[in-house]
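Predict the 3D structure for this chain.
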Amino acid sequence: MYCRISHVNDDDQTGVERQERICRDVAERLGLIVAEDQVVVDNNRSAWQHKRKRPGWDALLAEASQGRIRHVVPYHPDRLMRQPRDLEELLQIADDHDITLHGPANRRDLADPDDRFFLRLEVAHACRSSDDTSRRLIDSMIDRAKEGRPHTGRRRYGYDKTGMVVVSEEATIVREIFTRYLDGVSPVQLAKELYQRGEKTAEGRNWSAPRARDVLDSRHVAGIRVFRGEEIGDGEWPAILDRGMWQEVRERRAYRMTHAVSAAAAPGRPRMADCYPYRIATRRGDLTLVWRPGEGDAPDELAVDDLGRLLAFHDLETLREYCDRNGWEIVWEGEGTLDLGVVRRWVEHPDLGAVPAGLLLDAWNFFEDLSCSLKAGPPLPSQGPIHDSAYEKIFGGEALEPTAGEGAWTDEETAAVRELLRMGLGLWEQAVHRSGTG
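Done. Predicted structure below.
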């Protein structure tokens, strides 16, 4: 059983929970028994983007290629495939194994020439629809670039969501990062100090070396307009830094990166990625995970083994030995800790006492990283405007204070966050049950 919903505004945005309910109804009518580990989900994963990873889809293909799947029940073929190459890959596997697609409206036997023909038409139509959406988005971005306005999307550190208004407290930190980098302080040390001071990134996460590098590489803070990776002039928004300082940092970064790559390419020395230990405190004891921040727009990830199982360690020595064997460089300074025991208490027994809003934000971010990292497992609830407003309020630190007026969560927002965290705790329990440890 396969469910997916994308960030992109497809014509059909049916949530994965409802998709699963519909697919289970279909399976029940057909007399098919679906175990929990036979439900694969790609929540907020586009099937149109060529380079976007879909762990659920990859897991489904792996199982099918081993002959372990005879029936696939998607909500609709375009939830499963929006690129012809995806369909051809599945058909190639079906040539060796008898596979049938079932859906609410039709049934497709992948060995039947007529069904294969109609599937190719449906996928081609879905691909055309995605191309049309892409063209409209690109046209919109070109118009914004010509007008000197920034592209919308993920909030840039130092600016509000529009990218046009400077956030003064963050702008001070941006200047600090650039100035101290020119003084010789590394991104790792900068991130460590910001973490120790309790500062957060634009997404409300702890600082890490890749996040500090993102700020150093940002042309937005210098008021530089960019389209498709090319500088095309000055933006209409206020710059936080003067162009001279930004250029000096860029040249220093290029010099250091060149020498770092040369050193990493030396014989017998593998290139390593930044990894951070992340301790999870629970009522049954502590586990330490390996957290890897994403570069640029790439999502943060928690390390998994070759089978897609979460790597969880009971002691640091075992973690250290595992990382040494795999050539992973661990940044030990400033180990993060998340107390899921307190989060569970708030979710299951909200009347037992208050919890810090920041803890719930950390748990929210953690569960999203966990969901993106695992190849299979129950999805987090689809997030909509109610979650967006709750997420924004949590930065003020008063989301759980009833007397905070408009800064406090409404009953609806509180219920939405509690349900999301409840699902996150379930995902965590399942991940730990299946986890691999060194």
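DSSP finds 14 helices and twelve strands in the chain.
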